[in-house]
Amino acid sequence: MTRLGFVLTAFLAVASLVAQAPVAAQSDASSVTGAVEGIFPNGAAFNGVSLSGLTVGQGIFIAPDGSASGQFQAVLLGTSLLGTPQHVVLEGRVGNGSLGGDGSATFGGTATVDMGDGTLTISGVSFTVKASAQSLGLTLDGNALTTAAVTAGSITIE
For the whole model, what pTM was predicted? Predict the structure, then answer.
C-alpha cells in the first residue's frame, strides 16, 4: 500500500470514530456495555421459532437528553417448526435510551434481522431493550419477547 493510501485509510478510520462521538463526548453520558448469555423461560417464541436462549453483545452511550449511540447484537437460539436448530441474528444501531431508577437501562433503535432460515434479511426493524445485570427484555417490531435471565457474562450500566 502506498504511503498516501495508508494515510487516507488511517484518516477515514479516525473520522468514522469521531463521527459517532457526540453522545459519548457529553460529560454526563452513561454507558451500557457487556456480553452475556441468557435463557428464556418455556414458551418464548419469535416469528414461529421457539426460543431457548440468546447471546448478546452491546456497547452504548446514553446522553441525558435521551439520545444514544452504539451497537446491539443478539443471536436468538431456537428451534424451527420442523424441530431443527435455528439462530435468529439481530444487528441493531441504537438511537435513544434512558436509565431506570432500579439500575436498569432501556434503549432502542433500528436493526436488521436474519431469521436464519435462508429467507432475506429484514431491514428497518424497530427494537427496544431493557437491560439489567440479571435480565434482558427485548421487543422487536412491537412484539415483546419473554424476558431472558442472564446466565453468563455481565452487563455494566454506568
Answer: 0.81
